[in-house]
Amino acid sequence: MSSTAKQNYFFLLFSLLFFSTNEPLVYASVGIDPSWTESLAMAINQNFLFGKDFIFNYGPLGYLNTALLPAGVSPFVLFIFHLFILANYLFIIKLVFDKLKENWWKAAVSAVVILLPWGFFADVTFTLFYFLVFWLLYVHQSRSALGLLMTIVLAVLIFYIKVNLSLIAYGLFLLSLVYFVAARIVSWKAVLFITTLLGIATFSFSLLLNVSIPDYLAASLKIIDAYQDGQAVNILRLREIGFLLLLEFIILGIVLFYILRNLAYFKQNFYLYLLSALAWFLCFKQAHTATGHYNVFGFFLFLPVLAVLLFLFSKGLKNGAKMVFWVLVLQIVSTQYVRLSMANYSPKQYALSYFPNAVASEAIESKSPFYLLKTIAQKSPVHYFHKLLTYDYQNNFKNSEINKTRILPKVVLETIGEKSVDIMPWEISYVFFNKLNYNPRPIIQTYQANSDWLAYKNEEKYTSNSAPDIVLANLHGYREQNPLWMDKGAYLSLRKNYTLTDTVEMPEEEIYLFEKKANIKPIAYSVLENQKSLLDNSIPIPSYDLLYFHADINYSFFGKIARLFFQPPYLRCTVSYEGGSEEQFRIPPPILKGGILASQRVVTNEEFARFVQEQENKKIVSLTFWSKFKWGFKSNFDYHFEKIIQ
């Protein structure tokens, strides 16, 4: 059998494995992350205007990443999308085969290990961004018209899937076109045509997908700016983070070693190095803003494919295949360490992590390892296409276990009827599973209203005529933050513009039902005198019934560097109450700038119920802002109080 025939058989095998390791779609679930996927589906179902009615990281094609389909979307849309991804994979693999010639089989083995059984490396959006970088490099090397057309398709897909990444994708694409003209790789006429085509495609899809592009982009910039401060968290143990960072820098050192050995070609390879470094940095930030198992796992999956770019496109690089090999070996070590950590260092749980959750659970319950053989049925192309062909949107509402925890009591559903509904802080699954008339805040989940601008957009909604008729709300802690300090204006509007009419007892929590008052009014603020203070200084709280505290605490130069390259230093607040008790919260500076409740303690749901009914809670007597990382902040800051006019 010829080498070409063997390669073709491998492409067929790889394709079968690709469909075996990917789920074509998912059904709705519960939790903080599934909830935003359901909100996205409902936003599309109800024809929300993205950028105004709906402000989030994900756009109207975000379901290509979440795989939770809106009501009117055929599952074959996802199938076509997966075929597109597979075609990109196969094209890249073929290029590697051609470069390795008779050793192509080594690339075949590596392709399976790198790309499978994960399906996508990192997540779908980073997979698409990687393809964009690949095609730009391919154009740089081959002057390919196909490559330019592929970059348009990828840029537009990214733009309408995940808007914050799209800003980088478009910027990189357009700057690359300028460079291609300057380097005489592509003519200016071709660039003008490509740029025009990109603009037409972007604008046309904005009409089709109901996107206000100026608002979509402006809101995305606000989300990006506040994301680091509000979302940074270390879920892994400190020693685990240290060990994984060490492995990351060893991998980086290996790559730099091969680059430094090839300094004679540095100028010719500079564009390649620049794009690879940008992709590495973006994925690093994605993984280490919220340093959790899945994020870091995805980052390590991304590293070998970046090494493949260096192998494919570097001029003069010697032993590039060995570089890819060592990066892959260290990636395997790193990802297995992450898996072991996720399994709490239990060999049994570690082994079970390789099987689908449902299969592993069944094997544990039955105490029979033979149940693990069911994995064969679940990890096959037959499973993929069966799930695709039997898809029914209504299946989202037929999970009896979920329904037990999410279906509201009949009397509550009768109260709501066809009235518009929002829910705070983020468990949108209640709205989805009860098929309610969804009318959310623009920033749909409280934890993401993490700056003065974002929180004010929600306040505008709740103080306007378009405010939802019903709000289901309670408090939940989030990453050491005070639960009422997030989404300031929306929670305050519940007190000013809504009436607490019912308490809904659900299996997992208690939810308060608010009904909108007849006359919705903007919240009236009265700003008190501006003052100055220092970190670690206690700030006494004046005696007012309803008082908010605003401060502009800025990062130092080194704090900004830490924020850019890893995580921002954490700012904390010690709250002192009457009677001498104290409590500490983490407070992201952009939230503090927008204002935090300073007159009373509202941390529990009982206190929240008293707050919205204008009853008294324990008074706050002072606030003290501090950080373990004093080098990360300027010590002096301006602040003022703001009282609410009754």
The separation of the N and C termini measures 85 Å
Percent range for β-strand residues? 5-15%
What number is the mean pLDDT?
90
Low-confidence stretches: none
> Which CATH architecture of one domain?
Sandwich
Structural class category = alpha+beta
Radius of gyration: 27 Å
Distinct helical segment count: 26
Strand order of the largest sheet: 4-3-5-7-6
Q: Kindly identify the CATH topology of one domain.
A: Jelly Rolls
Largest sheet: 5 strands, mixed
Overview of the molecule:
This protein is an alpha+beta fold. Among the domains are: 233-342; 400-516, no CATH class; 525-644, Jelly Rolls (Sandwich), CATH 2.60.120. The chain contains 26 helices and 16 strands. A five-stranded mixed beta sheet has the order 4-3-5-7-6. Strands 8, 9, 11, 14 and 16 form a five-stranded antiparallel beta sheet that branches. Strand 3 (420-424), helix 21 and strand 4 (437-438) form a beta-alpha-beta unit. The chain is globular, with a radius of gyration of 27 Å.
